[in-house]
Design brief:
alpha/beta, 5-stranded mixed sheet, 5 strands
Length: 197
């Protein structure tokens, strides 16, 4: 079986999207570059991101703050994983061809998902949830790195668009400074209004 790692970034913040990634690593991937994204420095995360995007088969997805408010953060996170898997599948044939791999080895029935946490996305493959999978399985580590770097980059862009909230620093997480900015300035246009402040 070929493992597909799933993880997300952005369940806890008060603002911005949740981002999810799905990753299949090739047999020769340098797994020593990987770790739980939260345990890597930003420099190491960004360096690993480059290698993952170059060598692995990966998909990425964002689900915005309005959708999070409508469906709740858990459902939005799992939905983001579904979309990330769809993105991965859309790239699969080209990646297999480019790497000279056997298409039969990567057929859906040969794939098995591992999702970080206690819930699994509703994807077309058998999937298991594993607590702290992002510290145990290289594929999930890679997914956690892609999701975190993509979301952090988005929040830095939002900091330029909505100055005053400190998004580049805290990435939308519920820090004292973020809460104070919301009280002073009111919610930003990317605020999750269903979250408690």
């Amino acid at each position: 079986m070929i493992a597909v790692g799933f993880d997300e970034a952005g369940r806890g913040p008060l603002a911005g999207p949740v981002c999810a990634a799905a990753v299949i690593l090739p047999p020769d991937f340098p797994v020593e570059l990987l770790n739980d994204s939260k345990k890597l420095s930003e420099k190491k995360r960004l360096a690993a991101e480059v290698v993952i995007k170059e060598k692995a088969l990966w998909g990425l997805s964002f689900v915005d703050h309005k959708t999070i408010d409508k469906m709740n953060i858990l459902r939005a996170s799992l939905y983001a994983m579904n979309l990330a898997f769809d993105d991965l599948l859309a790239k699969k044939d080209e990646w297999i061809k480019k790497n000279g791999l056997g298409a039969a080895d990567y057929a859906l029935e040969k794939l098995e998902g591992i999702a970080d946490g206690t819930f699994v996305p509703e994807v077309q493959i058998n999937c298991q949830a594993v607590v702290k999978a992002d510290a145990k399985y290289p594929q999930v580590m890679a997914a956690s790195i892609l999701a975190k770097t993509a979301r952090d980059r988005f929040m830095v862009q939002m900091d330029k668009k909505y100055p005053g909230y400190g998004y580049a620093k805290h990435k939308g997480y519920p820090t004292a400074a973020h809460k104070a900015a919301c009280r002073e300035l009111g919610p930003s246009p990317i605020q999750r209004l269903s979250f408690t402040y």
